[in-house]
Structures are given as structure tokens and as C-alpha cells.
């Protein structure tokens, strides 16, 4: 086991923001909703070309500590991810130290990162509130000997080792639009022929993953639904604040009473938008709302016919994967693009280049890249009770 490294010298003046994680590799996607999501990673090879096993003898991760950092605590998505990470960590013999702030702010998250380093964590696995805002703090952490990985929402790829992503931007942007189009059709609209008025409501433009989904979703709409009209090209943002999500949701419905579709690619915005519609007495027959959030956070709105369908992925598996891979590299294991890593209880994953997420990004020769979770899920009234996160 690698000896724990601590640092009390978290000095300022670090390197400037570095390039963000990049896009181009192809991958399969699954948007079906099976009866259970546990150990879903047993499926799907990431590429057609045969990949190599991670080189050398695998060093044990047992006994290591990973600081698992969400964008904010108290959010159903992140709490569910922690539950999954804790469950798997017990099987793997590692400690997952869930550290976070109830506020989704760069300053708070930087403080959490610094606390993780001084507490002696072997590795950090963080979902960032900003694409570059944590770069300096994470570079300092790495300089202090702490392995840095990301999950859910990335930082500059040169400031971390591996990123565990829920999917490439084109996969997730298409999924959001497809769920909206299918829901519109179910309420009697013709997405191909009708003029559909729509908008996007999510956290903020500086959150790399959500913004990339919106950008790719817009491309997909222009190619497949040229008759759709975006009534708010600058988008609506509620900054991952639950109360603000309801307020912003209400303002959308007030400003655009004839809107057909609201896409909420954020786990705080979606329940807020549903609540705003419910407060106004609207149902899925009046306005189509869809997006990404945990099934339990939207279940009541689904059963009240406020929403037809929405999606996500098994965040418990994703969080666990991030913690395992952070510990895997902290233990002294070395990986490169094309290597396959066997994650116990979950399955085999492949290291992909950083440009699978954002076009033009580069990937270091070793211990740098992206790993995708194996599938994405769609929830509706028929299957929502099959899930408990």
C-alpha cells in the first residue's frame, strides 16, 4: 500500500487554467431501463479494436482513503452516488471519505479539496462545480502527492488522472432531445412537422458537462428538427439552488405560456421545473418537461402526471467507479489509453482518450484519460418503482 502523503503547504500562485477534457471517440450507448441497475457494467465493449490489459501486476488498493467530493451535499444525485460508493468501498477494503459543502460554489469546493489533502487522503475523486475553477487547488493536491480523479463533471484534463463520465456529449445531448421528442409525441404533437417552442434550464454555463450536452443537443435539434424554435437562446440557469430552480422554472412558464418543451439537464433544475409546473396546475399534457435527475427525486411528479419521462445513469456505480480508479492509480498502478481495468463487482472498463469528451483535447502518455459508465437509463411511470436512488 502506498504510504499516505500529507501536505500543510497549500501555497498559492499555481499554474493558470489548463485545457479541458476533449471529444471524438465512438462508444455504444444504452438508454433502456432494466429492472435493476446493480453491477450494470457487465455489458458493452467500448471500442471494436481489441484493448490491452492494464500493464504489469495489479497493486492492491486495500487500506487506501479516497476523499469523495460532490458539487454539493444534500442533493439526491450526490447522496445516492455516495451510498453506492460506500457499498462498494466496503467490499474493496478502502475508505471513502465523503466531504462536501451544501453550497455549489468554487470557493467552498476548493476548501473541501484543501481539507482532503491536509487530512491525509491518498486520492481525491471530485465532481467539479466549474470547468477550470478547481485547477489550481487540484494541481497543488497532486504536487502534494495526492492522486486526483474526477467523476460526473470534469476539470481541465491536465489537472487530473482519469475522469469517469456518464457519456460523451453527443450521446447525452441526443438522449435529452429524444426523450423530449418522444414525450411530445405521446401528448399528440408531431415533433417532425410541428413548430415546437422549447428552452434549456440547467445550473450554469461554466459547468462543463451540462453545457456540452446542451451544445450537442442544439446541434442535434438543428439537424433533425429544424422547425423547433428556441425561445431563450441564452438558456435559463438556476445555479444548482433548489429554491431558485422553482423560481426560474416559474419565470419560464410565465414568460412563455405557450412553450412546448423544457429540457433540464441538471438534477436540481428538473425537480424545480416540475414543481413550478405543478404549482401552476400544469400537467404533462400542457407542457413537456424532461431532463436528468435521480428517479426518486422525480417519482412524485411522475405519479402526479407532471412529467412523462426523464433519464439518468446509476450514479452509485459511477461514484464507486471514480473512487476505485482514484485508489487504483494512488496504489501505484499505471494505465494508458486502450488499457482495460477490471473493477471488482462492476466489470471491465477501458481507458479512452480525453478528446472523447471535448474535441481537440490531448491525453498524457500514462495515467490520463476517460472511462465511460456502461449505460444510461430512462424512467417513467411503468418502471420508476424499480429503482431506489
How many individual domains? 2
* Total number of helices: 9
Examine the coordinates and then state which fold CATH places here, giving the name of the CATH topology of the largest domain: Rossmann fold
Spans of at least 5 consecutive residues whose pLDDT stays below 50 are 1-53
Name the CATH homologous superfamily of the largest domain: Response regulator
User: What does the radius of gyration come to?
Assistant: 20 Å
- State the helicity in percent bands: 25-40%
**CATH class group of the largest domain:** Alpha Beta
Principal-axis shape: elongated
- Summed over residues and divided by their number, the pLDDT gives a mean of 88
Number of strands: 16
The CATH architecture of the largest domain can be given as 3-Layer(aba) Sandwich
By oligomeric state, this entry counts as single chain
H and E order: EEHEHEHEEHEHEEHEHEHEHEEEE
**Main beta sheet, described?**
6 strands, parallel
What's the end-to-end separation, in Å? 33 Å
- Strand order in the largest sheet: 3-2-4-5-6-15
| Share of β-strand residues | 15-25%
Structural class: alpha/beta
Amino acid at each position: 500500500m502506498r504510504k499516505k502523503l500529507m501536505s500543510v503547504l497549500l501555497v498559492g500562485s499555481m499554474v493558470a487554467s489548463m485545457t479541458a477534457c476533449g471529444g471524438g471517440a465512438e462508444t455504444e450507448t444504452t438508454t433502456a431501463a432494466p429492472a435493476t441497475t446493480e453491477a450494470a457494467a457487465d455489458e458493452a465493449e467500448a471500442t471494436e479494436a481489441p484493448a490491452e490489459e492494464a500493464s504489469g501486476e495489479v497493486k492492491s488498493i486495500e487500506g487506501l482513503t479516497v476523499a469523495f467530493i460532490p458539487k454539493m451535499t444534500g442533493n439526491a444525485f450526490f447522496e445516492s452516488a455516495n451510498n453506492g460508493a460506500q457499498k462498494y468501498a466496503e467490499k474493496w477494503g478502502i475508505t471513502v471519505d465523503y466531504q462536501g459543502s451544501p453550497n455549489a460554489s468554487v470557493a467552498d469546493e476548493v476548501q473541501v479539496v484543501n481539507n482532503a489533502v491536509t487530512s491525509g487522503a491518498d486520492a481525491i475523486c471530485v465532481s467539479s462545480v466549474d470547468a477550470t475553477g478547481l485547477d489550481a487547488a487540484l494541481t497543488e493536491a497532486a504536487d502534494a502527492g495526492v492522486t486526483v480523479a474526477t467523476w460526473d463533471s470534469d476539470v481541465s484534463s491536465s489537472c487530473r488522472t482519469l475522469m469517469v463520465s456518464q457519456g460523451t456529449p453527443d450521446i447525452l445531448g441526443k438522449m435529452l432531445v429524444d426523450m423530449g421528442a418522444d414525450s411530445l409525441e405521446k401528448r399528440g404533437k408531431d415533433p417532425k412537422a410541428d413548430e415546437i417552442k422549447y428552452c434549456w434550464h440547467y445550473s450554469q454555463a461554466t459547468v462543463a458537462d451540462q453545457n456540452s450536452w446542451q451544445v450537442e443537443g442544439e446541434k442535434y435539434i438543428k439537424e433533425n428538427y429544424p422547425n423547433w424554435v428556441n425561445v431563450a437562446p441564452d438558456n435559463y440557469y438556476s445555479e444548482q439552488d433548489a429554491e431558485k430552480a422553482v423560481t426560474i422554472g416559474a419565470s419560464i412558464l410565465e414568460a412563455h405560456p405557450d412553450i412546448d418543451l423544457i429540457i433540464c439537464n441538471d438534477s436540481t433544475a428538473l425537480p424545480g421545473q416540475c414543481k413550478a409546473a405543478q404549482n401552476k396546475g400544469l400537467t404533462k399534457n400542457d407542457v413537456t418537461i424532461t431532463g436528468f435527475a435521480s428517479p426518486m427525486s422525480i417519482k412524485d411528479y411522475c405519479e402526479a402526471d407532471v412529467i412523462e419521462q426523464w433519464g439518468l445513469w446509476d450514479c452509485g456505480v459511477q461514484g464507486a467507479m471514480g473512487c476505485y480508479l482514484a485508489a487504483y492509480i494512488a496504489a501505484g498502478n499505471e494505465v494508458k489509453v486502450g488499457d482495460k481495468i477490471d473493477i471488482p463487482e462492476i466489470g471491465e472498463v477501458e481507458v479512452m482518450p480525453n478528446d472523447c469528451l471535448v474535441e481537440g483535447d490531448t491525453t498524457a502518455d500514462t495515467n490520463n484519460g476517460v472511462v465511460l459508465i456502461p449505460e444510461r437509463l430512462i424512467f417513467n411511470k411503468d418502471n420508476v418503482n424499480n429503482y431506489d436512488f
